[in-house]
Each structure stands twice: as C-alpha cells, then as structure tokens.
Amino acid sequence: MTAQDRPVCRIGHTPTPLEPMPRLAHALGGPALYVKRDDCTGLATGGNKTRKLEFLMADAAAAGADTVVTQGAVQSNHVRQTAAAAAKLGFGCHALLEERLPNEPDVYATSGNVFLDGLFGATVERRPQGADMDAELAAAADALRQAGQRPYVIPGGGSNTVGARGYVACMEELLADARAHDLRIDHIVQATGSAGTQAGLVAGQCAAGTDIPIHGISVRFDRARQEDKVYALASDLAAELGAPDVPRDAVTAYDGYVGPGYGHPTAGMVEAIELVARTEGLLLDPVYAGKGMAGLIDLIRHGRFDARDNVVFLHTGGAVSLFGYTWAFDAPGRAAGPSAAA
Ligand SMILES: *Cc1c(COP(=O)(O)O)cnc(C)c1O
User: Fold this and answer.
1) What pLDDT does residue 181 have?
2) 195 CB less than 6 Å from ligand 1?
3) Which of 8, 22, 187, 216 has its CA 20 to 30 A from that of 130?
4) Alpha-carbon Rg for the chain in angstroms
5) What is the spatial distance between Cα 36 and Cα 173, in angstroms, rounded to a whole number?
C-alpha cells in the first residue's frame, strides 16, 4: 500500500539496497550500522534527487511543459540529476548555478557535476553568491516563456510537496526493508539541505504511523532555520497526504557539522569520507553525505546511541562532486584549499 496517489515517471532503480556496514561499525565501536543505498538510484550515477524527480517530471509532463528550469550550487547534484532526467524524458533543461564557494579551484568550476550538466545538454548560467535564487529562477522562467518555450520550474533541490513525495516513498521502502530483513530500525541519520528529503521521511512516518527518530545533519543553515524549513514542508505534505499532523519534535537537525559554510570542506568530512572508503569501499560526497557521516560519527563518539541500536545512514549520493574537490584531501602534491589553489 502506498500513501500516495499521484503519477510518477519511473526513472530510478528502486527499491535501493539496505546493507550492513560491519567494518565501519567495528572501527567506531558503537551501534550496528546500516546504509540505505540511495546513491544507487540509477539515474546518472544516482542520488536522492532521482526519487523527487519521479514526481516532479510527471508533474511537468502533466503541465504540458517542454523545458525544466532549476537552480543549485555550482557542484549541484540536483542540477545534474535534473539535467539527466530531462534528457531521458525529452525535455530541455536550463539551470542557474550559484557561486557559493569563493575562489573556486579549477576542478570545482569545471569537473564533476558541472561537466555532466553539459554532457546531458543542459544550459547553465551563473549567479553570484547571495543572489535571490528564487527570484532569479522566476525571471529565468519568464525569459524562456518570452522565447516561446513552456518552462516548468523545479525549486532548488526539488524540495516542494511534489518532490518530497519521493521520500515518502523511500520511507515506505525502508519500513518494508525492515520487515524483509527482520530488522528493528532505531534511528535514521541523513544529510539535510533544501529539506525535501527529511520532510518526506517525516511525513511518510506520520502517514505510516511510525516514529523512528530521524537525525538531520544540516549542511547549510543553523538548527532553528533548518528545523523550521523541514517542519513547514513536512506539515504541508502531511496535510496533502491526509496524514496526521507532524509533531514538532519529530523534526531534529544538528548544525555542528557545517564548518565555514555550505560546500566548504571540514576536517570531519575528510575523516568520514576516508574512513568509509577504507572500511566499506563506499564513496560519500564532500558537500552532503560526507558531512552527514561526520555527524553520525561524532554522535556515536558522544554516546548518543545504545550499543544495541540499529542505525541506518541514508546515503543520498553525490560522489560525482568528489572530482571537483580533490584539493580538499590531504594527498601529496595537492593544494590545501580553495585559496591556495586559486
Ligand atoms: C540534495 C542532497 C542532499 C540533501 O537533500 P535535501 O532534500 O536537499 O535536504 C543530501 N545529499 C546529497 C548528495 C544531495 O545531493
């Protein structure tokens, strides 16, 4: 049974695997650790935006659009997956990229997701850091309309009540995984940015009548602002689904792992990516999942979980951006940071 009754474009590979991470758990000495492999959603190297795009692209088709227009950071995984979905389904794609990282190293500006955006045939324009990206997005859609196109606007991260339904579906899938593996899931940990992923999971739990604690690790905003964003979207979505109201305390975000800002490397992120690579052969990304895992590691070290707990890390993808961040890793012959590399 599903809580949703809405058209979807089947462009992802789901259900994604739920796998144990025994060597990572052993290295950390805490609870049992599992990973929900939403980095394996199939579209253009995968990631969490694919589930959102299944709903958003169906909505774009229903609206009679011929082009999708969206926005993100320069190394946006969302823009890359949107460009791929548009290519696969025969839409044009135009994206605005906000320059959130000062003194961009050359690989950041051209490699990873940026390279793939162009490969998928998307057109991109840049905007300076701090631009009002929602206003810029509306203006870009107007310009496309003037040029005779029929644009469909996808907000940053695909995070509205249409896109977040992808994570209602993921929550249903996780509950089915738990039954299939006979596994009691005690906690879910994930990176939270534009809020649609966490909001979908939270609303999905309201619809399903479950209350597994979900720990959002913020990659951008402070705790109050991030929790407000997630709570507002989860509440709107629960209402659309006809689910019970979202309890305010069902939304938790931590803001201690952002570092200097969105997309800026941190020591915890580098440690988390190297540890997970070397214990599980698994790739995380520097902007989201790496900081999310840094948060999980720190919570384990601070005794937040019981040794008998089963903790699921939702892997939201993004490893493509590693190629734009090689300078952040401590390898011989590499510059130490963006300013040194500029
Ligand atoms: C977008 C993204 C997130 C954050 O998801 P939101 O729904 O924007 O909160 C996490 N991880 C990766 C790799 C992403 O690209």
Assistant:
1) 94
2) yes
3) 216
4) 19
5) 10
Question: Residue 126 belongs to what H/E stretch?
Answer: strand 123-128
**Closest atom of ligand 1 relative to the 219 alpha carbon:** 4
Q: Which two tokens stand for residue 160?
A: 């509205």
- What is the rounded CA–CA span in Å between residue 334 and residue 143? 42
Q: For residue 289, how far is its CA from the centre of ligand 1 (angstroms)?
A: 8
Could you tell me the pLDDT band of residue 273, with boundaries at 50, 70 and 90? Answer: very high
Judge residue 2's burial from the number of C-beta atoms within 10 Å of its C-beta, 0-12 exposed, 13-18 middle, 19 or more buried: exposed
User: Is it the case that residue 287 has pLDDT exceeding 70?
Assistant: yes
Confidence class for position 46, pLDDT limits 50, 70, 90: very high
Active site residues: 76
Q: Are strands 18-20 and 252-254 parallel, antiparallel or unpaired?
A: unpaired
Tell me the CA–centroid distance for residue 64 and ligand 1, in Å.
27
Q: What integer pLDDT is reported at residue 338 of this predicted model? A: 53
Whole-Å CA distances, 249 to 100, 212, 228, 230: 31, 12, 11, 11
> What is the rounded distance in angstroms from the CA atom of residue 286 to the CA atom of residue 71?
19
pTM above 0.90, yes or no: yes
CA dist 83 and 147 (Å) reads: 20
Closest atom of ligand 1 relative to the 156 alpha carbon? 8
315 Cα to the center of ligand 1, angstroms: 9
Query: First and final CA of the chain: distance in angstroms?
Result: 53
Does residue 196 line the site of ligand 1, with CB under 6 A? yes
Q: Give the confidence band of 43 by pLDDT, cuts at 50, 70, 90.
A: very high
Distance 7 CA to ligand 1 centre (A): 23
Question: Is residue 98 lining ligand 1, measured as CB closer than 6 Å?
Answer: no
Q: Please indicate whether residue 157, judged by its CB atom, sits closer than 6 Å to ligand 1.
A: yes
Quickly state the pLDDT bin for 333 (edges 50, 70, 90).
very low
For residue 335, what pLDDT is reported? 46
